[in-house]
Each structure stands twice: as structure tokens, then as C-alpha cells.
Write a structure and sequence with these properties.
Layout: H1 2-25, H2 30-49, H3 52-81, H4 90-93, H5 101-126, H6 131-150, H7 153-173, H8 175-199
């Protein structure tokens, strides 16, 4: 019974975190989403100008300055008002943050599964198990060479963050039109792939 209760509690916690992430990306709470979005962008832009060590040290100093100042302020306030409210961060200090053995095993199993899947897929592509898939992968890598020449890793990360906080809202507002265009593009791509497969001897046709 206790094990089932723990599993249910973890599933509820995961659902809660997932719901909060969706709310952030869809700007359900404008102030909260704006704060997270601006903070992440500020961090990424800082990394474009300074080293990771410097940015990490400055963030740690800023956090420590805020918590130490707040602790001193609350201590002085309690002394003046002669109250005994205790440590201002007591609730957070008593919060359980350690990962259980079951959680570690669960995450380790997922990482192992993803790693094995990626290794098998890369082996299949590089050793040309399916000629069409390997050609698609080669075209993708060729396009990435041009992307890499135009943008560095941090720039792409910044663009990814901006997309995460804008595309869901745009899709939600214009879902019908976007689905229609995506369907047309998918039809065209499938048509081109079918023609390529028909011209390549021994190419394996894949069912939709």
C-alpha cells in the first residue's frame, strides 16, 4: 500500500510540474511566463558575452546577496517587533529534495533506453541499412553545415527558447490554418520521397 501511495504521489507531482510547464509556455500567467522567459534570455545573452564560470559565479553571488539580505532583514524585523517567527526559509530547508533509489533507477533506465535507441539508429543510418533514410540523414547534415556557419550553439539555443515561448501561442491561435499548411507540406514531401524511392533500385518503401 505504501509503495502504491508513493507511486501515485510521484505521478501527481510529475503531472503538476508538466501542467506548470505548459502554463508557462502558453502564457497562462503573463507575469510568471514573462519573468521566466526574460530570465532565461538574460542568462543566455550573458553567456554570449562572458564565460560559463563567470556567469555561474555572478548568479551565485546575486542569489546569496538576496538570501543573506532577506535573512538579516527578517532577523532585525523580528528583534524590533519581538516576534519569534523562526527562520524565514524554514519551509524550504525542511523540504525533501533527495532522490530516492527508485527514482534514480527509473531515470537511469530511461537514459539507458534512449542511449541504446540512438546508437542503434545511428548505426542503421551510417551503415546504410535503408538507402533512402541514409540519404535523408546526409541531406540533414549538409543543411546543418550551413546552419552552423550562420549561427553558433548559443544563438541556436536562444532561438529555441524564443520559439518555445512563441510557437505554442501562435499555434493555439491559428491551429486550423497551420494544420492545413503542414498537411500540404507533408503531402508534397511524401510525394517527393515516393518518387525517389521508385527511382532507386532496392530502396525499401515504407508504409505511412
Amino acid at each position: 500500500m505504501q509503495g502504491a501511495a508513493d507511486v501515485t504521489k510521484k505521478e501527481c507531482s510529475w503531472s503538476s510540474w508538466k501542467g506548470q510547464a505548459i502554463d508557462l509556455l502558453y502564457w497562462r500567467n503573463v507575469k510568471q511566463s514573462g519573468a521566466v522567459f526574460s530570465s532565461v534570455l538574460l542568462l543566455l545573452f550573458s553567456l554570449t558575452q562572458f564565460s560559463v564560470v563567470s556567469v555561474g559565479a555572478y548568479l551565485a553571488l546575486a542569489a546569496l546577496s538576496a538570501t543573506i539580505s532577506f535573512r538579516i532583514y527578517k532577523s532585525v524585523l523580528q528583534a524590533v517587533q519581538k516576534t519569534d517567527e523562526g527562520h524565514p526559509f524554514k519551509a524550504y530547508l525542511e523540504m525533501e529534495i533527495a532522490l530516492s533509489q527508485d527514482q534514480i533507477s527509473k531515470y537511469a533506465d530511461k537514459i539507458l533506453l534512449y542511449t541504446n535507441t540512438c546508437m542503434k539508429e545511428l548505426r542503421r543510418l551510417f551503415l546504410v541499412q535503408d538507402l533512402v533514410d541514409s540519404l535523408k540523414f546526409a541531406v540533414l547534415m549538409w543543411l546543418l553545415t550551413y546552419v552552423g556557419a550562420l549561427f553558433n550553439g548559443l544563438t541556436l539555443l536562444i532561438l529555441a527558447v524564443v520559439s518555445m515561448f512563441t510557437l505554442p501561442v501562435v499555434y493555439e491561435k491559428h491551429q486550423a490554418q497551420i494544420d492545413q499548411y503542414v498537411g500540404l507540406i507533408r503531402t508534397q514531401v511524401n510525394s517527393v520521397v515516393g518518387k525517389i524511392q521508385a527511382k532507386i533500385p532496392g530502396a525499401k518503401r515504407k508504409e505511412e
